[in-house]
């Protein structure tokens, strides 16, 4: 504890180390202090009474400001900070003054990654096996899309420890049925510990016509690119807070829609990289893996995985194909550099108000690997995957509308699959593939001038998004409250990475981790990884080239085995060589699945089929009932 003066009277203030055993007051949407028994004196009159006020909770003196940056749909080999060919000067600077983590992992798709990140618990433990969307959630403990109250978020934890808490950009974990202006708001950011929120609640939105929310209400956007407006708002939150309480730390969760589709940039950015990608995706891969070796991010002996069988060699494409595909990549690259510049605005503001040296940054470059949702041709305005447009028709349309790529008219712009593979260098496969490093392996940067000595250092310890919250708490010298809003809290499941800050050769402490998305699954243990692709290589959710359907039988899924200690990018399947090791890991997956509520294994095609049948039965029952009523009349 420490003391300070309130209205001239010395008061006792509890700090974080004492919070663990304190019960929070009922939540009313505002910051709460921990109740104590009344310590004043209540007499019959004011004269024989002694006043006392509940002391406010304050963060320990000198506590760092904390900023989490989470980008969307960025592959490992996109940003220049990790060897990519897309310039990201802000990320480069933070990494060069901080640490690059090369063996960090996400959950392979947005909502599970975000739920795990915000809570420090595995995705199914916080009920986000899929999404919070009605069409992609199911009525089972690990799948209903509703983060339980006993799995408090980082914002709730930090607010209990005396922080102001802000979030801007994509939230993505509010159930669809709660996401109207009628609420309820307990699963909106404001109900999960954030003092202010400005952004969108869903998984995707148009960058010029966003489904925009401020605090607890939908608002009308102003027509500017959303990434600019969320940055303005973040800076405004910080400025107002520091003017009102200069010594109070803040937490900012900066999670832009970038670089998720639609790829849309202001006109002044659209031609920033004109002609830069004319050499194509094969040359891109070769250059990036060379860069990554020079930076010491991957083994010097590393080799590229074979080009995916469904992606054509760049030198076999027609001039028109090269023109259209390159334009998609020019816009994507501009989009990534544009969001890097927006983060740079926050860095510059903190520097200007002399707060940068006491600000802890975690920059996660991608909530999953590069997106395969742009299909083989790239997408402008087509709907979700599974549309019935042929490749030939899609390409013809893209060629005719090439000038709309990256503009407000391109309401679903996403680049072709060849660029997804390229920006995922040096890994194979992509977003949604929980079985592959290409779906789960993302760059992490940690920056904190006061706490990092090995500036520009590289760390290879195994990590996962669940590790960010415990790492944050250890940096700040804080602990998990025993209760939040009166509810006893479950333990964190992540492992702090703090041990690796000053020891580049420290043994990894996070030694076991599962992955699961849309049936594809994997289990990691001490460098070994067993994995099964439920929809091998699928791009379109319904069909593959030359196939009428995709095999969806879990019992027929083929498991592979990799030793990532020797084969970090999964080039050699060892399943037949070490069948006992594979069997051991499969058994571990089963134990893990039971522990974290992964079961039942869900294929969404089955869910949609069951719901369609139920809807048909309901409709038939209603029709029969109406006919019966008509007969009675």
TrEMBL record:
The keyword Zinc-finger does not apply. PANTHER family: ARYLSULFATASE FAMILY MEMBER (PTHR42693), BLL2667 PROTEIN (PTHR42693:SF43). This is Arylsulfatase. Keywords: Calcium, Hydrolase, Metal-binding, Signal. Residues 64-477 form the Sulfatase N-terminal domain. Pfam families: Sulfatase. Belongs to the sulfatase family. Transmembrane segments: none annotated. InterPro entries: Alkaline_phosphatase_core_sf (IPR017850), Sulfatase (IPR050738), Sulfatase_CS (IPR024607), Sulfatase_N (IPR000917). The keyword DNA repair does not apply.
């Amino acid at each position: 504890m420490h003391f300070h003066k309130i209205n001239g009277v010395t008061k006792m203030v509890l700090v974080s180390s004492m919070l663990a055993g304190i019960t929070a007051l009922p939540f009313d949407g505002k910051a709460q202090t921990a109740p104590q028994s009344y310590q004043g004196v209540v007499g019959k009159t004011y004269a024989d009474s002694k006043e006392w006020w509940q002391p406010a909770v304050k963060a320990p003196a000198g506590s760092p400001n904390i900023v989490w940056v989470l980008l969307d749909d960025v592959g490992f080999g996109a940003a220049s900070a990790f060897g990519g060919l897309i310039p990201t000067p802000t990320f480069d600077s933070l990494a060069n003054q901080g640490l690059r983590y090369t063996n960090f992992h996400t959950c392979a798709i947005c909502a599970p990654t975000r739920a795990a990140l915000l809570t420090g618990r595995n995705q199914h433990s916080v009920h986000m096996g899929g999404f919070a969307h009605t069409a992609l959630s199911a009525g089972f403990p690990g799948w209903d899309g509703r983060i339980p109250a006993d799995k408090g978020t980082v914002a709730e934890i930090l607010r209990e420890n005396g922080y102001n808490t802000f979030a801007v950009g994509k939230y993505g974990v509010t159930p669809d049925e709660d996401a109207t202006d009628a609420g309820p708001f307990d699963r909106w950011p404001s109900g999960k510990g954030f003092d202010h929120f400005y952004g969108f609640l869903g998984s995707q939105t148009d960058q010029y016509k966003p489904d925009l929310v401020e605090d607890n209400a939908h608002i009308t956007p102003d027509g500017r690119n959303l990434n600019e407006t969320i940055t303005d708002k973040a800076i405004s939150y910080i400025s107002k807070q520091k003017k009102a309480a200069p010594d109070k730390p803040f937490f900012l969760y900066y999670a832009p829609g970038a670089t998720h589709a639609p790829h849309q940039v202001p006109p002044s950015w659209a031609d920033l990289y004109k002609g830069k990608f004319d050499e194509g995706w094969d040359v891109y891969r070769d250059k990036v893996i060379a860069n990554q070796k020079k930076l010491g991010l991957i083994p010097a002996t590393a080799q590229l995985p074979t080009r995916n069988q469904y992606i054509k060699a760049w030198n076999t494409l027609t001039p028109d194909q090269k023109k259209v595909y390159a334009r998609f990549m020019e816009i994507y690259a501009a989009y990534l550099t544009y969001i890097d510049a927006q983060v740079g605005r926050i860095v510059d503001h903190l520097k200007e108000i002399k707060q940068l040296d006491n600000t802890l940054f975690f920059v996660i470059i991608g909530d999953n690997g590069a997106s395969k949702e742009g299909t083989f041709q790239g997408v402008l305005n087509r709907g979700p995957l599974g549309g019935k447009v042929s490749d030939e028709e899609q390409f013809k349309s893209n060629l005719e509308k090439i000038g709309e790529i990256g503009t407000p008219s391109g309401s679903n712009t996403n680049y072709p699959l060849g660029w997804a593979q390229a920006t995922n260098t040096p890994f194979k496969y992509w977003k949604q593939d929980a079985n592959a490093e290409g779906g789960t392996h993302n760059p992490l940067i940690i920056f904190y001038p006061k706490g990092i000595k090995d500036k520009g250092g590289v760390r290879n310890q195994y990590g996962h998004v669940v590790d960010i919250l415990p790492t944050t708490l250890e940096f700040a010298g804080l602990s998990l409250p025993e209760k939040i809003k009166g509810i006893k809290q479950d333990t964190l499941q992540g492992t702090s990475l703090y041990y690796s800050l000053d020891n580049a050769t420290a043994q990894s402490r996070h030694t076991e981790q599962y992955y699961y998305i849309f049936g594809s699954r994997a289990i990691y243990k001490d460098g070994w990884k067993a994995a099964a692709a439920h929809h091998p290589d699928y791009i379109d959710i319904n069909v593959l080239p030359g196939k009428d359907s995709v095999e969806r039988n879990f019992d027929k899924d083929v498991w592979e085995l990799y030793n990532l200690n020797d084969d970090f990018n999964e080039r050699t399947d060892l399943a037949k060589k070490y069948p006992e090791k594979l069997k051991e890991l499969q058994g571990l997956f089963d134990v893990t699945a039971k522990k974290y509520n992964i079961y039942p294994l869900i294929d969404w095609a089955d869910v949609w089929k069951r719901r369609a049948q139920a809807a048909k039965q309901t409709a038939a029952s209603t029709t029969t009932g109406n006919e019966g009523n008509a007969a009675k009349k």
